[in-house]
Every structure is written in C-alpha cells, then in structure tokens.
Design brief:
The strands form 5 sheets. This protein has a 7-stranded parallel beta sheet, with no helix packed on it. The chain has a 6-stranded parallel beta sheet with strand order 3-6-9-12-17-20, with no helix packed on it. 24% of the residues are buried. The longest helix is centred in the N-terminal third of the chain and has 25 residues. It is 18% helix and 26% strand. It has 2 domains: 184 residues, 3 Solenoid (UDP N-Acetylglucosamine Acyltransferase, domain 1); 32 residues. By secondary structure, it is of the alpha/beta class. Keywords: Acyltransferase, Repeat, Transferase. It comes from Streptomyces diastatochromogenes. This is Acyltransferase.
Length: 254
C-alpha cells in the first residue's frame, strides 16, 4: 500500500534543500579566488576580472604562475609550477596564461618547466597539459623512480582544446588550432590546423592560398547583424517555419 504523505516532513525537506543550496552558492562565491581576494594564494600576477572557481584543484608554486586578465578557471582545476611545493624556481615565471583563457572543469596544467598558454584559448573539461614525462631508460628501475624528462610547452593564442585532450612535453601548438577531444598532442602543430587522434595528426588545415583543405562540409555560421537586440533574437527564435518564410518575403520586397 502507498505510504501516507507527511506534509510537514516534506516541507522540512524542501526547506533544508533550499538552505543547503543557498549555503553552497555562498561558499562558492566566497571561496573563489580573484586579484582582489586571493585568499592564501600568492600568484606572481593575476589580471583584472580573472576568477578561479571554488572548490579549487591542487595549486602550488603560485609565485611562478602568472594569470592574465578576464580568465575563467573552472572548479577542480590543478595549476602547478615546479615538481613540488616550496621550491625556489628562480626569477622567471614558469607557467604563463594569457588574457581571456578558459580552463574547463577538472583540467590540469603541470609546469615543471615553462608552459605558455596564449590569449583567448578555450579548454574543455579534463584537459591535461604537462611539461614532464616519465622516463624508462633503465629497464631494472621502477619507472616512477627514474628521473623524468622535461620540455617546454607552448600553446598559441586562439586555440580550442577539446575535452580530455592531452598535451605532452615539447608540444608547440600554433595559432587558432583545434585539438579534438581525446587527442594526444606532441611535437609541432602549425597555425590554423585541426588535429585529432592518439598520437594526434593534422586532419584539416587552412592556408592563404588554398583555404581549408579538405574543404569544410558546412557553411560558416553567420553572426547576428549589429544592432539586433536580445528581445529581437528571442522573437526570431519563436517564429515557426511559416513565419520565417513571411519574414524572408518581406525582406526581399524591401
């Protein structure tokens, strides 16, 4: 038989849920890190309007981490400079992140030697960037005990790094590159390329002489005209097929 509903208990549960959600929202706002409210973190620099969401991932070596302005660092993102905390890494930055960079939830940027991320790069969730790799030269020594190899990493401006991609030591990624989800990148990637696979290879590239090769299969998106208001866009989205056709006829008639 169905149990009788306890209205009072149900009301208390909903009220408790609202309190928990409100409290967690307050914790997230209060715990986020900005230039004005850095908390315990002492970054080498952190630009205007940059925010690290709470809860943070692992962060250490922050005096050698320089963050640009208007960056969004999502929850549980790890940013490290050096092999371990409390090292003196010298006078120069180890990890540089440009302006307008977005690092997706759960991503890791491990900079044991220099890692540079250009401005306006967008990372999906769980991207892994590292300047260090295990070595296995000695077949008799456990791999985790062998001294790692380190090579600088550079990601050019304007790149899109897909979910779960891995950027390995020594990678040099050019400007406006798309790295497909799950790709494993090493070596040099030219400007204006799309790479995919493990190991990643160039599957499409743009040049001034040939354009995109192989050609794009869909037309480029057309941005809204200047001056269009959000209200007009919402009204357009609500139009059915017949309304769109009428609008097109009106525009054609001038």
């Amino acid at each position: 038989m169905p149990k009788s509903k306890n209205t009072f208990s149900s009301w208390r549960g909903r009220a408790a849920q609202r309190v928990v959600h409100a409290a967690w929202s307050w914790v997230q706002r209060t715990g986020s890190v900005t230039a004005e409210n850095p908390g315990r973190l002492n970054f080498g620099s952190i630009g205007e309007a940059t925010r690290l969401a709470f809860p943070l991932g692992t962060v250490f070596g922050e005096p050698w981490i320089h963050l640009g302005s208007h960056c969004i660092i999502a929850e549980q993102v790890t940013l490290t400079a050096g092999l371990m905390p409390d090292l003196d890494l010298g006078p120069d930055p180890i990890l540089r992140i440009g302006d307008g960079v977005v690092l997706g939830r759960g991503s890791h940027v491990i900079a044991d030697t220099t890692v540079t991320i250009g401005s306006d790069c967008y990372f999906g969730p769980y991207v892994y960037v590292t300047s260090t790799n295990h070595s296995y030269d000695d077949p008799h020594e456990p791999i985790g005990r062998q001294w790692p190899r380190m090579e600088p990493v550079e990601i050019g401006p304007g790149c899109w790094i897909g979910t779960g991609a891995v950027i390995l030591p020594g990678a040099r990624i050019g400007r406006n590159v798309v790295v497909a989800a799950g790709a494993v990148v090493r070596g040099t990637v030219p400007d204006h390329a799309v790479v995919a696979g493990a190991p990643a290879r160039v599957v499409r590239r743009w040049t001034p002489d040939d354009g995109w090769q192989p050609p794009l299969r869909t037309p480029a998106p057309v941005p809204p005209p200047e001056g269009v208001t959000p209200e007009q866009l919402r009204a357009l989205a609500d139009l059915d097929e017949e309304g769109v056709e009428r609008l097109a006829r009106l525009e054609a008639d001038g």
